[in-house]
Design goal:
There is one protein chain. The chain is mainly β. The chain has a single domain, classed as outer membrane lipoprotein receptor (LolB), chain A. 12% of the residues lie in helices and 41% in strands. The strands form two sheets. Strands 8-9-10-11-12-2-3-4-5-6-7-13 form a twelve-stranded mixed β-sheet. A three-stranded antiparallel β-sheet has the order 1-14-15, with no helix packed on it. It starts with a strand and ends in a 5-residue tail after the last strand. Pfam families: DUF2092 (PF09865).
C-alpha cells in the first residue's frame, strides 16, 4: 500500500480532490457562496437542502454513527471498495470527537476548540495540530490540509452546510422519495463540473441527512464515496470531557501523519 507522507505543519498544501463541495471545509471549511444559477436548481430540491442545512446549523449538540464505502480503481482497472465505520459527537462552541475504524487504521480524532488530536489506537501513537481558530470549519480545514485527507461528508458539520455543499453546483433536482434504514427520505441529486453527488434527507420535522454519495466523474471507473448516517441523537448534551484528549502515558507522539491511497489516515511510529 502506497502512502503519502505529510509533515504535521500548520500549512501543508496537500488536498484530496474528490469532494464535491468541500472546498473549504470543513473548511473538518470556510464560508462559500453558491456559484450556480438558481434556474439550474429545482426549487423543491433547493428548499429541502436549505431546510436540512438550517436544521443542522441549529443543533447545538448531537451524536451520530456512520458507515462509509470508498471505491478505488486499481492499475488493472478493477474497482475495489473499502469500508469503515465510526461515530461523531459534537457540541458547537466546545468541540468534537470522531472515531474511525477501517481496514488499515483505528483512529480517534478530537478537537477541544484549540488543538486537533489524532490517536492511533493499535500503535498507541498520537499527533496534534494547532487549529487556526475555534470553529469546526477552521479545525476541519486544518485537518484536511495537514493530513492530505478530505474527510468527505465533514461539510455537514460546517457553520453553513448549504453554502459549502452548493459551491460549484451547476444542476440539482429532487429525484423522489426513498427509504433509508426504514426511514422515509427525500432523494436529491446535484452536479458540479468535477463530481456528481446525492443526498437523502429524512422527511418530517427532523431534516437530517441519512445517506450521502459522491461520484468522481472524470476518474477512470467513476469511483464513489458513500456515507450512511444512523442513530442520530439531537436531544442530549455531550460531556465536554469527550473533546479533551489526554494521551496515555506510554503513547508516542509523532511529527508526521500518513494518508494512503484508499483514503485512510494512518498513524505509524516509523520504527
Amino acid at each position: 500500500m502506497q502512502k503519502s507522507n505529510c509533515t504535521v505543519s500548520s500549512r501543508s498544501v496537500m488536498r484530496w480532490q474528490t469532494r464535491p463541495v468541500l472546498a473549504a471545509a470543513v473548511g473538518l471549511v470556510l464560508s462559500y457562496g453558491p456559484a450556480w444559477s438558481q434556474s439550474a436548481i429545482d426549487k423543491d430540491a433547493d428548499d429541502i437542502l436549505v431546510a436540512m442545512s438550517n436544521h443542522l446549523k441549529g443543533l447545538k449538540a448531537f451524536s451520530v454513527d456512520y458507515d462509509t464505502d470508498h471505491e478505488i480503481v486499481d492499475t488493472a482497472g478493477q474497482k475495489i471498495q473499502y469500508s469503515a465505520s465510526g461515530s461523531i459527537a459534537a457540541s458547537r462552541g466546545e468541540g468534537f470527537r470522531m472515531t474511525r475504524k477501517g481496514p488499515y487504521a483505528d483512529v480517534e480524532v478530537t478537537f477541544d476548540g484549540k488543538v486537533i488530536s489524532l490517536y492511533g489506537k493499535g500503535m498507541n501513537v498520537y499527533a496534534q495540530l494547532e487549529s487556526p481558530g475555534p470553529s469546526f470549519d477552521e479545525a476541519i480545514e486544518e485537518f484536511r490540509i495537514s493530513t492530505g485527507l478530505d474527510a468527505a461528508g465533514a461539510d455537514l458539520l460546517s457553520a453553513d452546510p448549504y453554502a459549502v455543499m452548493t459551491e460549484g453546483a451547476i444542476e440539482g433536482k429532487l429525484i423522489g422519495e426513498a427509504s433509508i434504514g426504514g426511514v422515509q427520505c427525500d432523494h436529491l441529486a446535484f452536479r458540479t463540473d468535477a463530481v456528481d453527488w446525492q443526498i437523502w434527507v429524512q422527511k418530517g420535522e427532523q431534516k437530517l441527512p441519512l445517506k450521502y454519495v459522491i461520484t468522481t466523474k472524470w476518474v477512470t471507473g467513476a469511483p464513489q464515496y458513500a456515507l450512511r448516517l444512523s442513530n442520530w441523537n439531537v436531544t442530549s448534551e455531550n460531556d465536554p470531557k469527550l473533546f479533551a484528549f489526554v494521551p496515555p502515558t506510554d503513547a508516542k507522539k509523532l511529527e508526521q501523519v500518513y494518508s494512503d491511497e484508499v483514503g485512510e489516515l494512518t498513524l505509524e511510529s516509523g520504527e
